[in-house]
Design a protein that fits this description.
Blueprint (H helix, E strand, L loop, with lengths): L3 H6 L4 H11 L9 H15 L13 H10 L2 H24 L8 H7 L3 H9 L5
Helix pairs in contact: 6-7
């Protein structure tokens, strides 16, 4: 099954590259182009799913993080955020290694369409060339 990186890697448009940067950055809600990409992703991703349901919007957790920051001891919150960021890096590596039905990773797709900037970003983030 394809993930958002597969879809974004299919085009060399600047908005797709910026969407990839947003997807790979924990602060995805700070990218102004992300909502446009997300809308297209949800529509296309629903076609890939047998049940035609749309995936979950990851930005919905931002308000929860802000609440936890106010509720937790600052040291505990910092420790949790560091662990969260480490876990995200592992998830990014997993997303970059995920293959679609044709056994293509996002790096394969970016390379195929000639998007060397995106391919370099994927390799820099740990994609296996």
């Amino acid at each position: 099954m394809r993930n958002p990186l597969h879809y974004a890697a299919m085009s060399k448009f600047t908005l797709c590259y910026k969407s990839i940067q947003a997807l790979l950055d924990i602060q995805i809600d700070n990218e102004p182009e992300y909502p446009f990409f997300e809308h297209l992703y949800f529509e296309i991703a629903a076609l890939d799913r047998a049940d035609h349901k749309t995936p979950i919007d990851p930005r919905k957790s931002a308000c929860l993080i802000a609440e936890f920051e106010h509720l937790l001891d600052p040291k505990d919150f910092s420790r949790i955020i560091r662990q969260f960021k480490a876990d995200v890096q592992e998830l990014i590596k997993g997303a970059l290694a995920q293959t679609d039905i044709n056994s293509h990773t996002p790096l394969h797709i970016a390379s195929y369409v000639g998007d060397f900037k995106t391919a370099r970003l994927f390799v820099d983030l740990g994609a296996d060339p």
